[in-house]
Specification:
Helices cover 22% and strands 34% of the residues. The chain is of the alpha+beta class and 198 residues long. An 11-stranded antiparallel beta sheet has the order 4-3-2-1-11-10-9-8-7-6-5, with helices on one face. Helix 2 packs across helix 4. The longest helix is centred in the middle third of the chain and has 17 residues. The N terminus is likely disordered.
Length: 198
């Protein structure tokens, strides 16, 4: 019964509206967004995004790099975008920008379906899949929270989790795992102190 209701819900909402809802749940009003964490080898990782300059400064293993928004990796574009809720036009621009980036990565942004996450079995809205069991490049969003759970393009997969434990509650994952051909390549951890393993 729940699955039927979910299908009815999905038939009333377009992939564009799904992306709009996602940006709404991930929106942060700050002009500068900064996170400090560690990688899987406990090396410091720092991400700082300046909305006005449209630049991300990434510091990893002591090396600092400046990335323009246009050149930012897709998995980070999902979280660092330039929307300003005081300017509705900017929300629309950000949604189109994210949809364009998904499309450029091979995700069919014209289709979506209710599915089950390969990662944890939770109900997801899968942008890029026309049918539940279809193999495709996909962005999976939690059906409950509308936040990204999995981004899969080609042989690369990013798994996002622990939003409720993140330094930035709900708006950014506390854990990001990177896989290539199914093998874990790395991990970033942005957990608040009370959730870090001692």
């Amino acid at each position: 019964m729940k699955f039927i209701l979910a299908l009815l819900f999905l038939s009333m909402i377009s992939p564009s509206e799904i992306i709009t809802n996602m940006t709404d749940t991930l929106y942060l009003p700050d002009h500068k967004i900064a996170l400090q964490g560690v990688d899987h080898e406990n090396n410091p990782v720092r991400l700082e995004f300046d909305k006005e300059k449209k630049v991300l400064i990434k510091t990893e293993k002591g090396e600092k790099s400046e990335i323009k928004f246009a050149d930012m990796p897709l998995f980070l574009k999902l979280f660092f975008f330039t929307a300003d809720k005081t300017n509705p036009e900017s929300i629309s621009v950000s949604v189109k920008s994210i949809a364009g980036a998904l499309h450029a990565a091979g995700i069919n942004t014209e289709v979506a379906t209710v599915s089950v996450s390969e990662y944890d079995g939770s109900a997801v809205l899968a942008i890029g899949k026309e049918k539940r069991f279809t193999e495709a490049n996909v962005l999976e969003l939690s059906k409950e929270s509308m936040r990204p759970v999995i981004l899969k393009t080609g042989d690369e997969t990013y798994v996002f989790s622990d939003y409720h434990r993140s330094q930035m509650p709900l708006a950014f994952p506390g854990n990001i795992k990177f896989f290539k051909n199914g093998a874990l390549q790395g991990e970033w951890i942005f957990l608040r102190d009370e959730y870090k393993q001692k």
